[in-house]
Amino acid sequence: MDRETRAFAEQHFRDLGGQLYGGGGQAPSGVAFIKEPATFSYADFVKAFLLPNRPCVFSSAFTENWGSRRHWVTPEGKPDFEYLLQKYGDVVVPVANCGVQEYNSNPKEHMPLRKYISYWLEYVQGGCSSPRGCLYLKDWHLCRDSSAEDLGDVFTLPVYFSSDWLNEFWDALDVDDYRFVYAGPPGTWSPFHADIFRSFSWSANICGRKKWLFFPPGQEEALRDCHGSLPYDVTSPKLLDTRLHPMLQHSSPPLEVTQEAGEVVFVPSGWHHQVHNLDDTISINHNWVNGCNLANMWHFLQQELRAVQQEVHEWRDSMPDWHHHCQVIMRSCSGINFEEFYHFLKVIAERRLLVLGQGSEAAQEENIGLGLGFQQAAFDVGRLAEVLASVVTHPDFQRVDTSTFSPGPEELLRQLQDAVAATTTL
């Protein structure tokens, strides 16, 4: 990030005045298609898509040098099952059954990749039908389970998505990540959802085609049924029943995108979407959070806690440590609670403060492996300070035992605010 882009982004958030970023509004008339890497900069992406929170599609030129597009795909554009079996055949992968609804998702099983590929071939040979159902390889943590050397021959992270706090945090803990491979035949699909923690995501088709149905933040509310639940499948005829969906008349048609082989889709924060594979398709997908959607993540976590508290409200007076139990339940349901969110902020904050402590000239180097410059770190610190200030005053966070936190929340906030003041004019 350069100085001008940082100033632009900081002004954007000042203009928001604390309002939720990227919410509401009608769908744009179309999705921009970015053709040439040479003429599209990181600053262009920040200003045109990241800050406005709008989707876009990057052309196949952005992925043409990826090893996965050479090795995982046949000259005919189909998955190279022979290569995949040789390279990953014994790897155990998660597989979802698209034909079975379990709440608003699909049940999963685990099997060796070679077993899934055998099913895939039989499914296609059977006219895209199988007594085993419609199975979809989803959420395979290839990056987490591979060496850096192997990954270097799979894909190169586009610079536009390089400010990725979510995976930076999990990499620092060395326990998990939010980088996935999806693969499946025609007819496999992902039900209607918004991405975890209201993260951004990007999805690159290594081969095949996908159809995306997008709804901007807020438009999903008109799709709720009479019980307040969101739909599982927005293409279902059930959605047309106005007795079940009384708000349907206020809904707008989805924004539809067909993603071709090699193209990359940017999914903005809080946009609900549904995705269908039109061909034999393999994709690489990352969820990511940074300074631009951090406040959205914090807002989402507050909503999640309120939902838990509402569900167990009747035991509030009779259950010892009721507030603590709500945090435990939230962690189980959402994958994170207020305590872990603070540790997430702390890890990122300490790394950014380290960059700023090196000074603007030293920080121009590829410091501590993050590829961050001084201006990016300064912007990040400002966003961290604003969100942490909200966290430390939240009544439910104040009930969290922070006595063993180092530094404590108030001390970390002071450090961030001091850094903001020191870098305002730099």
In short:
36% of the residues lie in helices and 17% in strands.
**C-alpha Rg (nearest Å):** 22 Å
Multimeric status of the protein = single chain
C-alpha end-to-end distance: 13 Å
Shape: globular
Give the helices and strands, then pairings:
Layout: H1 3-16, E1 32-34, H2 42-50, E2 56-58, H3 67-71, H4 81-88, E3 92-97, E4 108-112, H5 113-125, E5 135-140, H6 148-151, H7 165-173, E6 179-184, E7 189-193, E8 200-207, E9 210-215, E10 255-259, E11 264-267, E12 272-277, E13 281-288, H8 294-311, H9 322-334, H10 338-357, H11 359-362, H12 374-392, H13 395-398, H14 409-423
Parallel strand pairs: 1-2
Antiparallel strand pairs: 2-11, 3-4, 3-5, 5-6, 6-13, 7-12, 8-11, 8-13, 9-10, 9-12
Keywords:
nine-stranded mixed sheet; 14 helices; 17% strand; four-stranded antiparallel sheet; 2 domains; 13 strands; 426 residues
Give an overview in words:
The chain has 426 residues and is of the alpha+beta class. The chain has 2 domains: 25-288, Jelly Rolls (Sandwich); 294-423, no CATH class. Helix content is 36%, strand content 17%. It is built from 14 helices and 13 strands. It has a 9-stranded mixed β-sheet. The protein has a 4-stranded antiparallel β-sheet with strand order 7-12-9-10, with no helix packed on it. It starts with a helix and ends with a helix. The mean pLDDT is 94. GO terms for molecular function: 2-oxoglutarate-dependent dioxygenase activity; catalytic activity, acting on a protein; metal ion binding; sequence-specific DNA binding. Its cofactor is Fe(2+). Interacts with ETF1. Interacts with the ETF1-GSPT1 complex. Keywords: Iron, Metal-binding, Oxidoreductase. It comes from Urocitellus parryii (Arctic ground squirrel).
